[in-house]
Amino acid sequence: MTSFWQRQSGLSSTQVLVGILVVGVIVAVVFAPRLLGQSGKALQAQATDEIETIGIALDTYAKDNGDYPSTEQGLTALWERPEVAPIPINWQGPYLDSPMTADPWGNPYVYVRPGLRDSNGYDLVSLGKDGIEGGTSEGEDVVSWIRSDE
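The structure corresponding to this sequence follows.
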């Protein structure tokens, strides 16, 4: 005669599946908000990096041509020779490997020359996830100047 313990030697596949499902739900509930929050920070970091890259290209353009592109010429002047006045005297572009017109959220970068914050230079802004001026968290603007609150 076989004892009870000899017949119960393992878990059924249904029991294993239910256990995995329970662990998966717990992990999703605990870690998903943290992971989603990190993706927003990553996109803001990407926007900061892109603004710095565009800034280097703008400085190189200004060094070659005596001034930054006008607001009308825009960032396009960094990869296409401007045909709108003021025509650059020594355009040696493209100054960027590929066009950067939109931030990581798909909103256009805002370029103004002369800048409202930097009247001798330019203002370059990503309006963040919400695409409107101001905001907090993922909607916070990423700017080319140093903020007084930082």
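The two ends are 78 Å apart (CA to CA).
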